[in-house]
Every structure is written in structure tokens, then in C-alpha cells.
UniProtKB/TrEMBL annotation, chain A:
The keyword Repressor does not apply. Keywords: 4Fe-4S, Iron, Iron-sulfur, Metal-binding. It holds the Pfam family NADH_4Fe-4S. This is NADH dehydrogenase (Quinone). InterPro entries: 4Fe4S_Fe-S-bd (IPR017896), 4Fe4S_Fe_S_CS (IPR017900), NADH-UbQ_OxRdtase_51kDa_CS (IPR001949), Nuo51_FMN-bd (IPR011538), Nuo51_FMN-bd_sf (IPR037225), Nuop51_4Fe4S-bd (IPR019575), Nuop51_4Fe4S-bd_sf (IPR037207), Thioredoxin-like_sf (IPR036249). It comes from the Bacteria. Residues 562-591, 592-619 form the 4Fe-4S ferredoxin-type domain. PROSITE patterns: 4FE4S_FER_1, 4FE4S_FER_2, COMPLEX1_51K_2. Belongs to the complex I 51 kDa subunit family. It comes from Thermincola ferriacetica. Transmembrane segments: none annotated.
From TrEMBL, chain B:
It comes from Thermincola ferriacetica. Residues 220-274 form the 4Fe-4S Mo/W bis-MGD-type domain. This is NADH:ubiquinone oxidoreductase subunit G, iron-sulfur binding protein. Residues 80-119 form the 4Fe-4S His(Cys)3-ligated-type domain. Pfam families: Fer2_4 (PF13510), Fer4_7 (PF12838), Molybdop_Fe4S4 (PF04879), NADH-G_4Fe-4S_3 (PF10588). One of its GO terms (molecular function) is 4 iron, 4 sulfur cluster binding.
UniProtKB/TrEMBL annotation, chain C:
It holds the Pfam family 2Fe-2S_thioredx. Belongs to the complex I 24 kDa subunit family. It comes from Thermincola ferriacetica. This is NADH-quinone oxidoreductase subunit E. GO terms for molecular function: 2 iron, 2 sulfur cluster binding; metal ion binding; oxidoreductase activity. Keywords: 2Fe-2S, Iron, Iron-sulfur, Metal-binding.
């Protein structure tokens, strides 16, 4: 067998050489680009070119600090690495000039520093690993994200990449690999949390000379972007994990099913596959071991239900993405009726680490039944949005308040939605629950893919339930009656409640429909579609009752239930609201308290936005 | 093959391994309703009306796709099952025109029968209903997709004939619909009106237009005959009302040949005592002898069939 | 050869595409995707040709086209605006952004402006939740939006 050791040494030396130069890294994941990272890149690239500077300009995937995007980092050989946030074209040039060229840190834009050989720069700049956002994190699945250049296989190899594949091919039998994965306790990171090793074992034991490996990269839960970050920031980790799986179960072909909404991920994957093939790490006779493994990308075409594994298989086969009846399970009869193993992106990304560092290392993290770490996407009304990888078992409170920095604008926490459309909302009283598969399920939520949307007192929970039902209803494949017709009726009832036309029996009807859909729908998505309603009914039933009986939305969200009023004591009579009102509902003399004509008001909220004196109240 | 013994509604039954719970229940005469299941024709599991309770299972599985296992304890009419079936029927009826009094299918409609059995009135959910325009574009098949329950039997029947596949599932979610290419009327599709879909439709969504208004289902007597118009020898039912032929329907769509339009119309004429030997058509004020194709106005259709077989 | 016998380049591209995928398993969706790349939508004639070459019934192709949100059977705008209505955007005011975009262009969700300049689509999540609310115009993502920024963003696309 061909060894990668020498190559790795060579690439590592190259990195050492590179570190002797000043390097600027720009975060160019989709989120970085969306925040303006491309403009930062442009400005820097022009400057470096025009002035012919001896600076290495590189990009990386996401390092998880979405709240300070766009991000750039400066590594000078003589100084610790400094991370800057909220930069734009102009400030990027300032940082280039002052820090990169002249060694002077631009302290007001610096977010963090990474000490070098114990030395720091300005003491007032937080140390990266001690920052509240990072302190409780562990980096395993996303260890390389934001660190390496995702388009460079050399950097991946220099950081220990493909060592696990090499180890597996040279010294482990198929069953040894499966045993190792089983021992690690890794559970599927895409939703249900099925033990990965066991899944592999089923596929391995299924008779057949042709088998397939599928990577589910159809990350469709609204509020989730872990998989996108991994694909964009460290695509080779996924390829390596898949190749190891292929070896373990006896497959020589694999598919990565990526949703069409992730063009950058597809581009980076295409590049990574081409590089790996060229390096002999994918394709025929990998590293001279005799093992063949070919990977293809399939771009989704816009259907959430394809995240369900049997629907995904139908979609790869070129059919409508409707779930299949199970059994038979994909491990027995999957893609083109051959035994198939299907895991999600994060699951595969965990495999190289488990093989390289050993199952015990991985199992050392987490709880008794849920091992390892999990990546969460922190979004909603928190101060620090971003991507955080934490050991499983950490409490929800730690994630929201310690890592994500609590609620924006000093508002009160109300609930956190975990697990997307199949998950549920968890209220304040359960914030100290450890985050693991079983505890979350017991609360009526689920780990799901790891989307974590935080809601404050200005979020209406009936409206949130309606939002999710609207989503599942739109995305229902239409195959089975309970999901196709039932979610429609549930949505209609929720719409009615939010519109102030709720009937006393509506809650009972919602519960009855929920229970029937849960117990009779064809696939996992249908069975979990009522969860957002059941969970909100469980913890926020009073909000439903308020909407139905008192025609009140205390969060001030459901327009039909709101009334806009002007507090005469606060109103200065400036006329700003009167001017902006599109229907002329506001009247009043200058410098006198104004009034809103409730009959004319269309509750658009324009006046509230314009009022500088907080004189307009809705409720 | 080995045998499996299970308990259904307290009765032990032994069946070959691989049998479905539905088949096992049928064997002991336990009633389980079905919409999308048609032996040897459909890939069922979609409508969920056939759910049953199996002790120790988390959910209510569809009996048509659940294989029996040794020691399984099944209940086909437990409270949970009845509640689920009733809700599913309410959901179907909520999106269905309640015009049973004029519906051709009345009396021979599964939806009607099951609604009666489970006491479903159609008042549980008031909300959006489909408002598709019925397809009245051809003389043979009347299609009202507002009545369709998406069981998929018509699609399976159409696909079972080589080179047909005129209809399939289209769109998704609540808007899922059985459609031709580009969702046209049947007239503008490749449909040749073999009426196999009509024969399998469990509700009144696809009906034989030539028999509309000619009698309620319970007034008709059927007599099976073999078509002699070609060597295929398809079976047809001749329908009589008060001894008079009112139409010919396909007897068994699942087996054999395409049950073509020519055969069906021909059989109709053959069994109709008022029918002349050769058709006469009034041309320029005088009765002239013409071919059956011309008289039936199916010359164009035959071209369509011929083009397909080429 | 006379120049007027030259084939339409789009037709040629479609033929090359079909030649490449002919006989391949699971080819339908990539073929539809790339056909849409060629024409901007899926013309009837192209679908008929795909049906003949890949030997897939037209009704099945229609079923696939109408199942996936990405496929379009009529021409669309030069610029596609995708307004994210995912959870994070929802709680951060995505609806207001959506309203403003529709108002600015005078069209609704799924519609195309008469001059074929813009098509609006609402999408469930584009995975840039940290920057909510966001919209995507073609492949560009615009984040942390307020409704007042919409006119300037639209002005960037011709």
C-alpha cells in the first residue's frame, strides 16, 4: 500500500513555510459572503495585487462566529493570530495597512486573538478559546472549518486528513471498522439519532455484491446550517467518512445528495472529489489497497421531503421524492433495490476523527446514551448567532446564555425551538435539561439536525406553530392521506386562531388531528409534523386560550388581534406617525397628542417604527 | 415456505410467512377497509385507511404493507383504530363534493360505504376544497378530480398497459392531483379510453360517460361476455336495466389485454337488440351505410391507437 | 453546408445533453436541471424529446417537474429573488422584507415582472440564519436586511 506519510510531511512543511509570511484569511462561507465577505476579499485582493504586497491572501469556511461576519484574520509570523469582525472594504484596508504591514493591531475591530507560544498582543483583546462563545465548545466535526482552505486537499492532509482512511485500508477489517464505530457510540446526526455503527452493520450483513453509500446533504430544516458549514469548510472530511463507510459495508459507489440551495457547497464538493481522485484517495484501487470507491454528487431539485431517506433514494433514482413504505429498510433494499447506507453530513464528518483518535476518545464526550459532540446552529433572538459544537449533555441554558450570550435587547427568554419542523419548543423551566437525544425527545422536541432558534417575549407561540405547519403543509409530498389532508386542516385551524376567529373546540380538534397524524402517517416527516403544535400546546396552552377566548395575542404578533393606541402622555405631537400612516388613520394637531382611528387602522406597524418617543402601543 | 401464527381480534390464524396482515385478516373474515390496495396491481401503503393496532408497536401500521410475524397480536377495530379511520375518512370527505344523491357511483362507492360504517357525515372540518373543472371533453370518460381520493389505482392500471402511462401523480402536498402530461383534458392526451381506470376507481372520480344517468348501480344487472372483436378475448360486463342493455363495462381490469374502446362499443352494439347490421348515418338528408368507425366517431381515435402501437 | 441549416444552439445543447445521459440510471432529474439551464425553463418540446430519448412516459416527467420546486414550465425572469421565510428570518421580520419586495416590483410570490426582469419566490430557508432576515438574488445573498434597503438592492440587477 502507498503511504501518505511523506506527502503529509511535505505539506506540513509547506504550511510552516507559509507561516513565515503574513497571511490574511477571509471567511467565505455562504454566511460570510452574505454579510459582505466577498467585498472585503475584493478590496484586499486589489490592494495586494496593485501594491504587489508580499502577503498571502486565503479564504476559509465558516468559523462559526456568524454574529461578527464578515470576518478576517491576520497571521503575522511575529505575532499571535488576530481575528477581526464586522469588517468592510474600507476597514479591511485599514487592517491590512496597520496590522498586516506594520504590526499594529487595530484594536477597535479585533474580536479575538489566538496566543502564540503563550504570548499575546494587546491584553484587552479576548483570547479566542476563552471567549464566552468558544469556552464551552469542543471541535471535532467542525475542527477544520474556518481553519483550513476548503479547496486545498494538501492542507487537509497536512492536518491529518485521510490518515483514518489509510489506517482502515491498511490495518483494519470491515468488521473491525464497524466495531470501532459502534464502540464510539456515534448516533446519526441528522434527526432520529439511530446508532451509526449498527446501521453500518445492517448494510454490511445484507447479502449482495453491489451496495451503495449515500450522504444526506439535503439540509432542509429552517434554521439549520451545520451541514452547509461542514461542506463548505471541510468537504474532504465528508468524503473520507464516506469512503471509510464504503469499505466497511462493502460498497464501491456513493452519492452525495446536496440541496440545490447550496451552490457553494456543491462547488467545493466537486473540487474536493476531483482532488481526491487525482491524489488516488477516491476512485480505483485507493492507495494501492485494491479498494475502489467512486463518489458522485446529486443536486436536489427543491423538495424538503427528500431529507427523508427513502424519498431521497427515489429522488436519486429520478422519481418524485415520495417516501417508500418500510420495511424493507434501505440497509436491505435501498438505492436501485440494493443494500444502502445513508447518513448525514455531520455523521460522516465525525468518522475520520473516531478512527484516528479511537472510539474511546469520542465516547469520552457526551452522556451515557449520547456520545460525542454535536454542532448546533444558534439563531433567533440571541446576541451571538453562529455555529457551536458542544459536548452532548451540556444544558440548553449553557448554550443559549453562555455561548450565544443570552437574549438580544434585554428582552425576556420565552422558548427555544429545537429540531426544526419535526421538533418542538422548550420553555424556560426546562432550560437546565441536558441536550441529548433522549432528554429532548422526552420534552416533545428532538435533537433533529441541530437547529436552535431562540424566541423572546415578542414571539407568539401560536404563530410559531402556524409557521411550522405552513412549512410542513407546503412540503408534504401528498402521498398519504393523514399528512396531505390533515396538516392542511391543522393549518386552517391555526390560521383561524391567529386571525381571532378561533372556536372553543379548536384545541381539541388540533390534538385529535395531531394524534392521528402521528400514529398513521407514512413517513417520519409526516409522523412528526404535528410536533410543533403538540409542544406549544403542552407548554403554552394559555396562549392558545388567550387567542381563542380573549381574542388577545400578548406577544403582539397576530395582527388581527392587535389594536394600536397612542399614549397621550408620551406623544409630543411631532406628526411623524401621521405622515407615515398609509391610510390616514392618525389625526391630531401639531404639538398635541395624536389619536389613531381604530376603524381605519390597518395595523401595518409603520407608525411604531417612526415614533421616536415610544408613544405608540400595540396590544 | 414456513408458516407464521398470529392472533387477530383474539382468533389465532396460521398463514405462510410473508403474508400481509391484511391478507391474514381477510382469511378469517375480519373486515379491514382499503382504498389504494389492489392485489397484484398497486404498490399500496398510501391511503392509510387500513391501519390496524399491533400490540407493542408505537404507531398504527398500514395492514396492506405490514408482514405478519410469529406471535403478533393484531386488533382491527380497536378504539384507536376506529378513531384513526374515522379521522382519515373525515379528512377525505372534507375535500370531497357531498353530492352522493346524483353521483353515478352511489351504491358502489367505497368512500360512501366506509363513511356509513364509521358514521362520518362530512361536517368535521370546514375548509378549502378543491375546485377543479370536471373534464367533460370526450364522449367516453367523465373525470371529476374533485372526487378523487388519490388512491393511485387508475395510475397503476394505466401503467400496467404497455406504452400507455397517460396519467400519473403530479404536483405535491394538498395540490397533488392525477394528471396527464401538462395537465390537459383527456381529449388532448394520449388516452384511448380503454376505461381500465374507470373499472378500478373506488369512488366517482372517473366514470363511464356513456352510462351516466342510465341507472343507479343497484338497478343494474351484469352479465359477463367475452369480446370477439379481436383474438385477445377480453372480458366485459354487459349492464342491463329492466332487461335492456344500458352499457358495457370492463369486467376485470387487472388481468390481460387493454379492454379497448372498439371492443367495448362493439360489444355494446352486439348485445343491443335495436341495433342494425350496418350503421346508417343521415348524409345530405338521406340514410347512408357507413363503417362502424365513422358511425361511432372513433376514426380519429383509432388513428391515435394505431400511432401508439407503431 | 448552408448556414440556414444550422441548428438552434439550444437544441444542439439539448441533444448533446441527452446523448451524454442516454442509458444512464437516474438521469431524469439532472437532465431536467440542465435542460432548464439551457432554456431558462422547461419547454414542452424539450420535455417531449427527453421522453423519447430517455424512454420515460411524458406523464411521469410531468409528475417529476411539478413535484420539485426548482422546475418551471414557463419562462422566468432574468433575476430570481428568493426571499427567505425560514424560522430565523420569520422571527426577525422576514415577512416585512417579503412585503416590500412584492410592493417594489408589483408582483406576488411566484410571479414574474412583465419585462422579465425579476421573478419572486419565497423559500423555506437558505441556511444563512445568522444574518436573518436575508434574501438571495440569483447567487448573491443579502443579509441583515431592513425593508428600506430593498430598492437599492433591486437596482443592482438589470
Amino acid at each position: 500500500m502507498i503511504s501518505l506519510a511523506e506527502k503529509r510531511k511535505e505539506y506540513q512543511n509547506r504550511l510552516v513555510e507559509k507561516a513565515k509570511k503574513t497571511v490574511i484569511v477571509v471567511g467565505m462561507g455562504t454566511c460570510g459572503i452574505a454579510a459582505g465577505g466577498d467585498k472585503v476579499w475584493q478590496a484586499l485582493e486589489n490592494a495586494v495585487k496593485n501594491k504587489n504586497l508580499d502577503i498571502e491572501l486565503v479564504y476559509s469556511g465558516c468559523i462559526g462566529l456568524c454574529y461578527v461576519e464578515p470576518i478576517m484574520e491576520v497571521h503575522r509570523p511575529d505575532m499571535p493570530r488576530v481575528i477581526y469582525g464586522n469588517v468592510n472594504g474600507e476597514t479591511a484596508l485599514k487592517i491590512l495597512e496597520e496590522h498586516a504591514l506594520n504590526g499594529k493591531v487595530v484594536s477597535d475591530l479585533a474580536v479575538a486573538q489566538d496566543p502564540k507560544e503563550g504570548k499575546t498582543v494587546l491584553p484587552e483583546i479576548p483570547i479566542l478559546n476563552e471567549m464566552p462563545f468558544y469556552k464551552k465548545q469542543v471541535k471535532t466535526a467542525i475542527a477544520n472549518c474556518g481553519i483550513i482552505n476548503p479547496d486545498s486537499i494538501e492542507e487537509y492532509i497536512a492536518y491529518g486528513g485521510y490518515e483514518a482512511l489509510e489506517k482502515v485500508l491498511s490495518s483494519m477489517s470491515q468488521t473491525q471498522v464497524i466495531e470501532e464505530v459502534k464502540k464510539s457510540g456515534l448516533r446519526g446526526r441528522g434527526g432520529g439519532g439511530f446508532p451509526t455503527g449498527l446501521k453500518w452493520e445492517f448494510a454490511y450483513k445484507s447479502p449482495g455484491d453491489k451496495k451503495y453509500v449515500i450522504c444526506n446533504a439535503d439540509e432542509g430544516d429552517p434554521g439549520a446550517f451545520m451541514d452547509r458549514s461542514v461542506l463548505e469548510g471541510d468537504p474532504h472530511a465528508v468524503l473520507e467518512g464516506m469512503a471509510i463507510c464504503g469499505y466497511a459495508i462493502g460498497a464501491d459507489e456513493g452519492y452525495i445528495y446536496v440541496r440545490a440551495e447550496y451552490p457553494l457547497a456543491i462547488k467545493r464538493l466537486e473540487n474536493a472529489i476531483a482532488q481526491a481522485e487525482k491524489a488516488g484517495l477516491l476512485g480505483e484501487n485507493i492507495l494501492g489497497s485494491g479498494f475502489n470507491f467512486k463518489l458522485r454528487i446529486k443536486a436536489g431539485a427543491g423538495a424538503f421531503v427528500c431529507g427523508e431517506e427513502t424519498a431521497l433514494i427515489n429522488s436519486i433514482e429520478g422519481k418524485r421524492g415520495m417516501p417508500r413504505v418500510r420495511p424493507p429498510f434501505p440497509a436491505q433494499s435501498g438505492l436501485w433495490n440494493k443494500p444502502t447506507n445513508n447518513n448525514n453530513v455531520e455523521t460522516y464528518a465525525n468518522i475520520p476523527g473516531i478512527i484516528r483518535k479511537g472510539a474511546d476518545w469520542f465516547a469520552g464526550m457526551g452522556t451515557e446514551k449520547s456520545k460525542g459532540s454535536k454542532v448546533f446552529a444558534l439563531t433567533g433572538k440571541v446576541n451571538r448567532t453562529g455555529l457551536a459544537e458542544v459536548p452532548i449533555g451540556i444544558t440548553i441554558r449553557e448554550i443559549i446564555f453562555d455561548i450565544a450570550g443570552g437574549i438580544q435587547n434585554n428582552k425576556k427568554f420565552k422558548a427555544v425551538q429545537i429540531g426544526g419542523p419535526s421538533g418542538g419548543c422548550i420553555p424556560e423551566e426546562y432550560l437546565d435539561t441536558p441536550v441529548d437525544y433522549d432528554s429532548l425527545t422526552a420534552l416533545g422536541a428532538m435533537m433533529g439536525s441541530g437547529g436552535l432558534v431562540v424566541m423572546d417575549e415578542t414571539t407568539c407561540m401560536v404563530d410559531v406553530a402556524r409557521f411550522f405547519l405552513n412549512f410542513t403543509q407546503k412540503e408534504s409530498c401528498g402521498k398519504c392521506t393523514p399528512c396531505r389532508e390533515g396538516t392542511k386542516r391543522m393549518l386552517e385551524i391555526l390560521n383561524r386562531i391567529c386571525d381571532g376567529k378561533g372556536k372553543p373546540e379548536d384545541i381539541d380538534t388540533l390534538e385529535r388531528l395531531s394524534n392521528v397524524i402521528k400514529s398513521t402517517a407514512l413517513c417520519g416527516l409526516g409522523q412528526s409534523a404535528p410536533n410543533p403544535v403538540l409542544a406549544t400546546l403542552r407548554y403554552f396552552r394559555n396562549e392558545y386560550e388567550d387567542h381563542i377566548h380573549n381574542k388577545k395575542c400578548t406577544a403582539g404578533v397576530c395582527t388581527a388581534l392587535l389594536e394600536y393606541k397612542i399614549d397621550p402622555d408620551k406623544c409630543k405631537g411631532c406628526g411623524a406617525c401621521k405622515k407615515v400612516c398609509p391610510v390616514g388613520a392618525i389625526s391630531g394637531e401639531k404639538k398635541e397628542a395624536h389619536e389613531i382611528d381604530a376603524g381605519k387602522c390597518i395595523k401595518c406597524g409603520s407608525c411604531i417604527e417612526k415614533c421616536k418617543f415610544d408613544a405608540i402601543i400595540k396590544g | 415456505m414456513s408458516n407464521v401464527t398470529l392472533t387477530i381480534n383474539g382468533r389465532q390464524v396460521t398463514v405462510p410467512a410473508g403474508t400481509t396482515v391484511l391478507e391474514a385478516a381477510e382469511k378469517i373474515g375480519a373486515f379491514i377497509p382499503t382504498f389504494c390496495y389492489e392485489k397484484d396491481l398497486t404498490a399500496p401503503g398510501a391511503c392509510r385507511i387500513c391501519v390496524v393496532e399491533i400490540e407493542g408497536w408505537r404507531n398504527l401500521p398500514a395492514s396492506c404493507v405490514t408482514a405478519v410475524a410469529d406471535g403478533m397480536v393484531v386488533h382491527t377495530e380497536s378504539p384507536a383504530v376506529v378513531e384513526a379511520r374515522k379521522t382519515i375518512l373525515e379528512l377525505l370527505v372534507a375535500n370531497h363534493p357531498l353530492d352522493c344523491m346524483t353521483c353515478e357511483k352511489s351504491g358502489n362507492c367505497k368512500l360512501q360505504d366506509y363513511a356509513y360504517r364509521y358514521g362520518v357525515t362530512g361536517t368535521a372540518f370546514a375548509g378549502e376544497k378543491h375546485a377543479y373543472r370536471p373534464d367533460d371533453s370526450n364522449p367516453y370518460i367523465y373525470r371529476d378530480l374533485n372526487k378523487c381520493i388519490l388512491c393511485g389505482k387508475c395510475v397503476a392500471a394505466c401503467n400496467a398497459v404497455q406504452e400507455r402511462s397517460v396519467i400519473n401523480f403530479a404536483y405535491r402536498g394538498f395540490n397533488t392531483k392525477i394528471a396527464t402530461f401538462l395537465d390537459t383534458d383527456l381529449k388532448d392526451s394520449e388516452c384511448v379510453y380503454c376505461n381500465r381506470c374507470v373499472a378500478v376507481c373506488p369512488v366517482g372520480a372517473i366514470v363511464d360517460k356513456t352510462m351516466m344517468g342510465k341507472g343507479r348501480t343497484w338497478e343494474l344487472e351484469k352479465k359477463q361476455v367475452t369480446c370477439t372483436f379481436c383474438a385477445a378475448g377480453c372480458a366485459f360486463d354487459v349492464n342491463y336495466k329492466n332487461g335492456k342493455v344500458v352499457g358495457v363495462t370492463a369486467a376485470n381490469a387487472a388481468a390481460g389485454r387493454p379492454l379497448c374502446l372498439k371492443g367495448r362499443l362493439g360489444v355494446n352494439l352486439l348485445y343491443n337488440p335495436d341495433c342494425p347490421e350496418k350503421p346508417l348515418i343521415k348524409k345530405d338528408g338521406e340514410f347512408t351505410e357507413v363503417s362502424w368507425e365513422e358511425a361511432l366517431g372513433i376514426a380519429q381515435l383509432l388513428e391515435k391507437i394505431n400511432a401508439l402501437t407503431k | 453546408m448552408c448556414c440556414c441549416e444550422k441548428k438552434d444552439p439550444k437544441q444542439e445543447a439539448l441533444e448533446a445533453l441527452l446523448a451524454k445521459y442516454k442509458g444512464q440510471k437516474g438521469a431524469l432529474i439532472p437532465v431536467l436541471q440542465q435542460t432548464q439551464d439551457i432554456y431558462g425553463y422547461l419547454p414542452k418540446e424539450a420535455l417531449q424529446q427527453i421522453s423519447r430519448e430517455l424512454k420515460i412516459p411524458l406523464s411521469e416527467i410531468f409528475g417529476v417537474c411539478t413535484f420539485y420546486a426548482q422546475f418551471h414550465l414557463s419562462p422566468r425572469g432574468r433575476n430570481i429573488i428568493r426571499v427567505c421565510l425560514g424560522t430565523a428570518c420569520h422571527v426577525r421580520g422576514g415577512a416585512k422584507i417579503f412585503e416590500r419586495v412584492q410592493q417594489e416590483l408589483g408582483i406576488k410570490d411566484g410571479e414574474t415582472t412583465e419585462d422579465l426582469r425579476f421573478t419572486i419566490e419565497s423559500v423555506a430557508c437558505i441556511g444563512a440564519c445568522g444574518l436573518a432576515p436575508v434574501i438571495m438574488v440569483n447567487d448573491d445573498t443579502h443579509g441583515r436586511l431592513t425593508p428600506d434597503q430593498i430598492p437599492d438592492i433591486l437596482a443592482q440587477y438589470e
